[in-house]
Amino acid sequence: MYKKSGLITYYALTPVHTGAGSSVSYIDLPVQRERHTSFPIMAGSGLKGVFRALAERDREKGNLELNIDEIFGPEDGSKGSSCVAFTDAKILLYPVRSVKNTFAWITCPFVLKRFKEDLESAGKEIKNFSIPEVSDNKIIVASNSPLIINNNPTNNNPNNNNSKKVGLEEFVFDVDNTQIDNNLIDLIEKIKGYIPDTETTQNLSARFAIVSDNVFTDLVNYAVEVRTRIKIDQTTGTASSGALFTVEMVPSESIFYSLVFADDPKIKNNSNDNSNDDANGVINKIKNLIDNKVIQVGGDETIGLGFVKVKFIN
To answer: Which pTM does this prediction carry?
Structure first.
């Protein structure tokens, strides 16, 4: 049983390709997705490997404050096991093109409910966390949201939202008449406090939108970035025959989250540092290692893909 936990969020600075191998569909190299929802994810095993590699680089620079084998487990698993567990990173906010205000961060009731349950399972106390329902042709945004195409209520009634619409990708949604209550405002502020602070994320409230579960599923499956790539024959300088392939990527500005759980180290630390002899010390060491760092996940590092900014909350 793990004794301590923390929340890790990932803000995509560039498109991300966490590969799921090859495919026989029109996408040759798709991204990792949950089997039951088809939502994009980043596998926990890959994230743990990235964090271990980050720790090893710190050790080479002489900046390391933790024992790598003690925290992440030795390369030879027969000698012991890791005292930390990283869950898969799940999507929280997904960026899509907007008719106004450039892009919107969308989420849906299913994602918000799961986010709430995950936080509670990690021991995070959640108060006043109200999650509204929304139909497929509706969208929930703040009453003064810059995403709204027509923000001029009809019939001189300021509560009449019949003329308010939001355009995302090729779809147009009616603004839901549900007023944004304090619970939802609190939710947005909680999310803002959980994600890395950048000039873009400071405008979270202006871009935040809730769509239905069905619409969200469609957009995270089809509003993706797909790049067609070729292999260049170095002798001729032209494209090699039969070397055309397509790569699917989760767009930049996507925001994921995962949980980390820690127990007391199972492997005796032979160093003089005794500060990480318990689970609380382990969590603090992990936070110091990754908080506010920019890491690279997934493939195609040399062409600038997969760079994300990390925030750790315990």
So the answer is: 0.88
